[in-house]
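Methods — Computational structure assignment.
A single polypeptide chain was analysed. Its primary sequence is given first, followed by the predicted tertiary structure written as structure tokens.
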Amino acid sequence: MNPNCADCYNDRGLSLFYIGDPTSALESFDKAIALDPGFTHAWLSKGFVLISEGRYQEAVAPLNKVKELDTTGVLALQADKFLVIVAENSRP
């Protein structure tokens, strides 16, 4: 794998998540973000995995970052959908 490819780390992270290793997946997303802080897909993937792991409050920051980077795009709309899930699961 190209160690300078943020997209590669994002794809790797999703693969790791789907084979049952969310911890390594999150590490891979963090590497993608370190390489390219503006790589919206990695932020969205991180939020998705955090939600999938029930870590709702931790998902808020990466999802808000998606909305900051992609203000009116498709990824921002997906982030909004994930934030609804966070809100629904954060109610007392």
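Note: Residues 74-89 form the longest helix (16 residues).
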